[in-house]
Amino acid sequence: MTQLVRDAGEMLAGMTPELKSGQYVFCAAGDRDWTLLQPLAMFREAEGVSLILELGAAEAAGFPIEAPMALITLNVYSALDGVGLTAAVSGALAKA
């Protein structure tokens, strides 16, 4: 099994980012039946259910579209208690 990395510098050095094809959107499910939409991710919070959907699926379901986004998979075996990776990647994307 691959060793999990906790150090942010090692995480950055070892990752191999991959831009996936397609566009994705963040949607608030509201009262809609989203169970057949095959979301990439689903978050259940006090305010309700939020989904990450492929753009076409969100459009077909009638969700309002605000900001289509790309999907980047970092391909790094980071430990859950490792810190700094998200901040470093966000900073690099903000400069791009």
UniProtKB/TrEMBL annotation:
Domain of life where this protein originates: Bacteria
* Lineage per the UniProt record: Bacteria, Pseudomonadati, Pseudomonadota, Alphaproteobacteria, Caulobacterales
- Species whose genome carries this gene: Caulobacter vibrioides
One Pfam assignment: ACT_3
InterPro entries given for it?
Answer: ACT-like_dom_sf, DUF2241
- What name appears for this protein in its UniProt entry? DUF2241 domain-containing protein
Cite the DUF2241 domain residue spans from the record.
Answer: 9-69
What SUPFAM superfamilies does this protein map onto? ACT-like
Per the UniProt entry, the signal peptide is: none
